[in-house]
Amino acid sequence: xxxxxDRVPLAERVEQLLAEEGPLPIxxxxxxxxxxxxxxxxxxxxxxxLARFVRAxxxxxxxxxGVGLAAPQVGVGLRIAVIEDPAxxxxxxxxxxxxxxxxxxxxxxxxxxxxxxxxxxxxxxxLSVPGYQAVVTRHAAVRLTGQDExxxxxxxxxxxxxxxxxxxxxxxxxxxxxxxxxxxxSLSCNAAAARYWGQPTxxxxxxxxxxxxx
Length: 214
Known about the structure:
The chain is an alpha+beta fold. Helix content is 29%, strand content 24%. Helix 1 packs across helix 2 (46-63).
């Protein structure tokens, strides 16, 4: 079923979103835009509008708060995402998850491929699936290619938690939610996750809830 916003040109749709002050509204699972492969960015917004849109994504991500945000999560089917992670976590979590601070960056037309065969499983959440977390097994290292907001080429390896962020946000641009890759038996509301599964790894959750880790 076509939504009314589907008939609005992308630039006009973005202008409408930016007309309101403050963070953009984040769409939740069930909205069709989250299940569609995005359109590659090839200048549809123009430099000035793109810059405004990127600023709005940054404001929205930080306000949520989150460590990444893809354009479809604000209702725009363009292949653009932003990531940033100050990594305010205890040392044992940082070490176990390979979570290192990441500066703000813009991913335009990103794609990733696995580097090596190692995989890692941790609880993961999503701003478009509020209230829940689940264990997702992902590549431990990936190579990201694409461009930044100025058209400069990106070709970089990510490992640990940054690799997870890159995969999560790029998946959004292909119409994939983290739940599609999650271990169903691990699905936990945020309150339960905080009460039972706050450990740096998912090993205890796997034993108690009855699922396998890689």
